[in-house]
Design brief:
786 residues, 47% helix, globular
């Protein structure tokens, strides 16, 4: 029995870097062919096997397997697909790799071999509409039905990128291997937010049967499978650093999942014009001459564009995305964080997932990585082996508590806000700043868009995983106008023409702000309290959808109130709206019509469990603590009453128009006080669209975590984890969200929380997702992923 070859022995046998590189390329080409989908009638091209040369071990294996039932071409290709066992089966020096590449490329373009296009939702939607059952494996017939008309899948191994253009070489090396496991459906369990993967079945062709036979022979022979996987992994690591903070394997899902067709076209267009002709040269090798980038890209499919974009370097792609986002060409709302809804796995040692926000692109990981990444940055800015740099760092951390320099440095980094500590080190010199920009991946064109020190500092720390301060207070302008209006109103008791003009000018802005915030208050309250988040929409707030939802709910059986469908609401219907909403809530009863059906409960809770389910009713309001329900209804009633008694609508109309009867000082002050009181109460209760973010996390020796969500103006909510409540669907605590602090669930310390989905290309791309189909195969209720 032959002894098992170790990685070290393999490296000694194939010690030349050129040979190691050829073995790696052969393995990549083998994986592409081994993981593709083929038909039952697939024939191995003779020119493919003609390009393959086997070692003596490979030839001996073919001799043992070859027969009338197992033709030589299929046996040769099967050995190529295996690559190695104890010994190498394919001759790396004599195999014509260029010819193998060309044959594979032709087979892809001719659609003789298929790869599933896993990005976006094309296959997902087709499966929902055309496949009857949710199975974990598709028959070959259903597989071919699913792939019919779909584009070739885009995957990358080494510098080989598959796709509609065939097999093309990129200027960047990435490892995003093809897979026959496709994210294809969501099950009927409303508590399950996992997209289930389905195995696509390849055809029962001759090559498939010969591969099975060859594996049987190999498993029976007197030799052990050696450490070739370890050897190949070592070769991959030489090209792609597994510890990279911007791991390239996440780039394809970043591009393919979160950008619309139009946005993808902008990205390709930009790269064609910004890569100094390098992308155009790659296209030229495909027989595509590009004169006008915009015209060239206007008719390309999503898969075609994705494959071409992946021909560029990662730094070029990220700089293009940053530039397009920061310039506003690709619009991302302030609260939107774009990540793949398919819940892709993180890549690299740190399991990083790239994401896009209005600040650009970053590679996100666990929260604890921010400190590790920051320490790594500091070590790259200051080489402590050099006395001058060590002395400089010692000076910068002077005054920090610590018995030694290292203790001082640790306290400097860990003892206060991390973004502030890093900022002082990064901006210590132009050299440090340039090094920090390179470390976090801020490219030259993105740098031009970060014109001042504050925006650049936030861009650097955000890319390190430090979210920084929360968004500004939405009430700030309203409060400033209220303060100024109060000062003008109290300046004198008798208003002459000049006083009236001053008051009218400020009052115009005050009431415009008031109308906007009251509308957001009424929309958010209606959506939050009456919408079935668990079963229909997810625990998500969409300002655009909330307009129609609020109109529908507030005008039901109301003939005297109308709300404009364009979202431009005036004070009178809104003041009435708070009263109408309060009445609607008080009329809700817990009965068969409002209680959730048991079939919609999480499957995990249908048996005795330590968890408690919070969402037992179709209207969230009914799930709240009775005292909380009473306070919310009373607050809404009081809002309407206070705005009416303060004559807010009347004073606004009087000041808006030239009216001989100017309001008195008491009337102006009464309107200001009423408006400010109503909004202050709404803010305290959490019914204004004020973003909360995770501001603090503490863990004790028992694993108990205390997490604090906070807003820019200091409103906080403290939660304890792990929880005994089954919180399925509620936003994860690490993302931006609205926290309705007064909406406390019954017998718990949990409150209603909603993530934010603003109108964007990303929101449109993933609307009505997930789509759930019951076990019967009939389409079920669709709702948005939380």
């Amino acid at each position: 029995m032959a002894s098992k070859l170790t990685r070290e022995q393999i490296e000694q046998m194939y010690s030349k870097p050129e040979t190691q590189e050829r073995i790696l390329r052969i393995d990549c080409l083998s994986q592409f062919l081994g993981l593709c989908i083929i038909s039952d009638s697939y024939e191995v091209p003779a020119r493919l096997t003609a390009a393959i040369r086997l070692t003596s071990a490979g030839s001996g294996l073919v001799t043992r397997v070859q027969s009338n039932a197992n033709p030589r071409n299929e046996c040769t290709l099967s050995a190529f697909l295996q690559v190695s066992w104890n010994e190498l089966l394919v001759d790396p020096e004599e195999t014509n790799i260029d010819s193998v590449e060309k044959v594979i490329s032709d087979e892809i373009k001719r659609e003789k071999v298929f790869f599933p296009y896993i990005y976006g939702r094309r296959l997902y939607d087709k499966a929902f509409e055309e496949l009857r059952d949710n199975n974990d494996t598709l028959t070959h017939k259903d597989t071919m039905t699913l792939l019919a008309g779909a584009p070739q899948g885009v995957f990358q191994l080494h510098d080989y990128v598959t796709g509609p253009w065939g097999l093309v070489r990129s200027r960047e090396i990435r490892y995003c291997p093809p897979s026959n496991w496709v994210p294809l459906y969501h099950c009927d369990d409303l508590s399950c937010d996992r997209v289930h993967r389905v195995l696509l079945e390849t055809g029962a062709s001759k090559i498939s049967k010969v591969r099975t036979k060859m594996r049987e022979v190999l498993s029976r022979q007197d030799s052990a499978e050696s450490e070739w996987d370890d050897f190949l992994l070592e070769q991959v690591s030489r090209h792609v650093n597994p510890f990279a903070w911007r791991h390239s394997a996440g780039i394809p899902s970043l591009l393919g999942d979160i950008f619309s067709l139009g946005e993808m076209r902008l990205i390709l267009h930009d790269l064609l014009n910004s890569t100094q002709g390098k992308l155009r040269a790659s296209l030229s090798s495909l027989g595509q001459e590009v004169r006008e980038a915009e015209k060239f890209s206007e008719n390309l499919t999503e898969a075609q564009m994705l494959q071409l974009i992946l021909l560029c370097k990662d730094e070029e792609i990220v700089d293009s995305l940053d530039f397009l986002i920061l310039s506003g060409a690709i619009f991302i709302p302030p609260a939107e964080i774009r990540t793949s809804p398919r819940a892709v796995h993180g890549t690299g040692y740190f399991n990083l997932v790239p994401e896009c926000a209005s600040k650009g692109v970053r590679f996100a990981g666990a929260a604890s990585l921010a400190l590790l990444r920051s320490r790594h940055l500091i070590s790259s800015l200051f080489d402590l082996s050099k006395p001058a740099q060590r002395e400089r760092l010692e000076w910068l951390v002077r005054g920090t508590d610590g018995a030694s320099f290292q203790e001082q440095l640790d306290q400097f980094v860990c003892g206060g806000p991390l973004d502030g500590a890093l900022g002082s080190l990064v901006f210590d010199s132009g050299t440090n700043l340039a090094a920090a920009e390179k470390f976090v991946g801020i490219g030259p064109r993105a740098r031009e868009r970060l014109s001042n020190e504050e925006s650049l500092r936030r861009a650097i720390t955000w890319r390190l995983g430090i979210d920084g301060p929360a968004e500004s207070d939405v009430l700030l302008d309203f409060r400033q106008y209220g303060t100024r209006l109060r000062e003008l109103a109290m300046r004198t008791h008798t208003y002459v023409a000049a006083d009236q003009a001053d008051i009218r000018a400020v009052a115009s802005n005050f009431f415009v702000k008031l109308e906007g915030i009251l509308q957001e208050y009424l929309k958010l309250a209606t959506w939050a309290l009456l919408r079935d988040h668990y079963a229909s929409s997810g625990f998500v707030y969409s300002p655009e959808e909330a307009v129609d939802f609020a109109i529908q709910e507030l005008t039901r059986d109301q003939s005297d109130v109308q709300f404009s469908a364009d979202g431009k609401w005036t004070l009178f219907p809104m003041i009435r709206g708070f009263d109408i909403l309060a009445d609607r809530l008080k009329l809700l009863k817990s009965d068969a019509s409002t209680q959730r059906e048991l079939a919609d409960y999480p499957k995990i809770l249908r048996s005795p469990s330590p968890y408690t389910f919070l969402f037992r009713h179709v209207h969230p309001y009914l799930d709240f603590d009775p005292a909380a329900r009473s306070r919310i209804a009373a607050m809404l009633e009081a809002a309407s009453r206070k705005l009416l008694s303060g004559k807010v609508d009347e004073i606004r109309n009087t000041l808006q128009h030239t009216n001989p009867k100017f309001p008195t000082q008491d009337e102006v002050l009464g309107a200001i006080n009423a408006a400010e009181t109503v909004l202050a109460e709404a803010e305290e209760a959490g019914f204004l669209p004020v973003i909360s973010r995770l501001s603090e996390s503490q863990t004790d020796s028992y694993g108990r975590r205390t997490l604090t969500l906070g807003t820019a103006n200091g409103k906080t909510l403290r939660l304890v984890r792990p929880s005994s409540y089954y919180l399925t669907g509620l936003p994860v605590l690490s993302e931006a969200q609205y926290v309705l602090r007064s909406a406390i669930y019954e017998n718990s310390g949990e409150v209603l929380r909603l993530s934010i989905r603003e109108d964007s290309e990303y929101a449109k791309r993933w609307s009505d997702y997930p789509r759930r189909r019951g076990n019967s195969g009939k389409p079920g209720t669709s709702h948005l992923d939380a």
